[in-house]
């Protein structure tokens, strides 16, 4: 299980690609997943990612959703962390 990360622990990035490569190397491709690329007129392009910090709880929750159609497990809810990366490499957690 990976602990939730904070912005203070991260290096400075110069681009989205640099930040993405850091997260993929550190946490693995399967635990760092692109959710959506968004083009916003005021913010520019940014990317929303999901970092799976507890793969076992995440998988169990996904299986429960398949079976029941929902999952209200606190462990499942806490199993991911959202990360927003701007085109210029700025990271919002």
Please describe what this structure looks like.
The protein is an alpha+beta fold and 93 residues long. 32% of the residues lie in helices and 29% in strands. The longest helix is centred in the middle third of the chain and has 14 residues, at 55-68. It is globular. The two termini are 18 Å apart.
Please provide a brief summary of the model.
The chain is an alpha+beta fold. Helix content is 32%, strand content 29%.
Features:
single chain; 93 residues; alpha+beta; 4 strands; 32% helix
Q: How far is the first residue's CA from the last residue's CA?
A: 18 Å
Sum up the overall morphology in one term.
globular
Query: Radius of gyration, rounded?
Result: 14 Å
What's the total helix number? 3
The order of strands across the largest sheet is 1-2-3-4
| Assembly classification | single chain
- Taken together, the total number of domains comes to 1
Low-confidence stretches: none
User: Helical percent range?
Assistant: 25-40%
Walk me through the topology.
Layout: H1 16-27, E1 32-40, E2 44-52, H2 55-68, H3 74-77, E3 80-86, E4 91-92
Antiparallel strand pairs: 1-2, 2-3, 3-4
């Amino acid at each position: 299980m990976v602990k939730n990360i904070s912005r203070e622990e991260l290096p400075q990035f110069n681009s989205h690609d640099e930040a993405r490569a850091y997260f993929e190397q550190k946490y693995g491709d399967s635990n760092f997943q692109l959710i959506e690329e968004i083009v916003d007129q005021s913010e520019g392009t940014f990317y929303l990612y999901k970092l799976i910090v507890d793969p076992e709880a995440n998988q169990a929750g996904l299986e429960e959703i398949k079976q029941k159609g929902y999952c209200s497990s606190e462990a499942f809810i806490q199993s991911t962390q959202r990360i927003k990366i701007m085109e210029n490499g700025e990271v919002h957690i």
